[in-house]
Design a protein that fits this description.
two-stranded antiparallel ribbon, about 55% helix, 6 helices, mainly alpha
């Protein structure tokens, strides 16, 4: 499942039928493969080398990736996931490294 393709499909479906309801989106976002792909995309970006507000950089995240993704998944499904505040860079909000896969999975 490719994130960008699914995001395009969801956007198209919601535009074509404004009354359409999307249930099970949380299951999609919390899917292990989906989160892994989101992490891969995030860690491939040039910004991943810089530590975020949580002090985690790319190397640290990669070293503990499976554990972090499992934790994020459990928190998403339990309803206890609360992202940390983004670090302000100029006018952009940069989410913490640990939050990036979850953010990327549903953007």
């Amino acid at each position: 499942m490719i994130i960008s393709e699914m995001q395009s499909k969801l956007a198209t479906w919601s535009t074509e039928n404004r009354e359409r309801k999307f249930d099970r989106l949380l299951r999609l976002i919390a899917d292990r493969n989906w989160l892994s792909q989101a992490a891969r995309i995030t860690l491939a970006s040039s910004g991943a080398r810089t530590p975020d507000v949580d002090g985690v950089d790319k190397c640290m995240m990669e070293a503990n990736l499976q554990h972090e993704l499992a934790t994020i998944r459990e928190e998403l499904l339990a309803g206890s996931y609360h992202p940390l505040p983004a670090r302000r860079v100029r006018t952009l909000g940069v989410p913490p490294q640990r939050e990036n896969p979850a953010c990327k999975s549903h953007l």
